[in-house]
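Forum > Structural Biology > Help requests

Title: Can anyone predict the 3D structure of Polyphosphate glucokinase?

Hi all, first post here. I have the sequence for Polyphosphate glucokinase but no way to get a structure on my laptop. I'd be grateful if someone could post the structure tokens.
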Amino acid sequence: MKILMIDVGGTNVKLMATGRRAVVKVPSGRKMTAARMIKEVLKATEDWDFQAITIGYPGVVRNGQPASEPPNVGGGWLRIDFKKAFGKPVRFINDAGLQALAAHRTGRMLYLGFGTSTGATLIVDDVIVPLEVGSLCLPDGKRFGKHLSDKAFQKRGQKRWKRTALAGIELLREVFKPDHIMLGGGNSDAIRPLPPDCSQQDNRAAFRGAVRLWPGADMLAEPYGASWRITRRKTKKSPK
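Reply #1:
Sure, ran it for you. Structure tokens for Polyphosphate glucokinase below:
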């Protein structure tokens, strides 16, 4: 299937589609309501060819639909019929879950996204569980959401922010015991050298996750309450 990805962020809405290498960014922010997002996306993609839409949503998603208004953009997300508005099938996934799904191979993986806010998702045994880590406290008592946001990065400077990020990574490593940690988001570039068993993923890789919400991909993630369950496409065995 030809897929359009709409990754809704606090700074930009990022658009990618099958057959298009470039990322198109539409400025977002607190004034980006759901209705305005739809209008801007339709305008930006009016000559694009796609059959279905994946939306990376910066908030809680349950049973494949937004369950709460997002904190860093405008409102109205719970009242709109997105399938009707776009005229295409639409599937939602938490934005950190989208990035995690894109990075997942096997085993127990923790994804941490350092952008406008801090996003996190754990994948265990092919079950995707988005985590709300913003209210967690670091060892020095500082909260993730306040001291690892982009606002904190700009205010405190890269060096101090990096120390806090490294402390946060190690705290979550101790809690969740992942085999691997994937870092993403624009501010993850500041975390160099990377901690042990960590790697970094460019935000553009999210498109692989967008494809994996639709049949025909190597993995198919389907909503199950507040999580997603992955099934893998079976490969045909060659005859002996």
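The domain at 105-200 is CATH 3.30.420.40 (Nucleotidyltransferase; domain 5). Helices lie at 34-44, 82-86, 95-103, 144-147, 150-156, 158-176, 206-211.
Shout if anything looks off.
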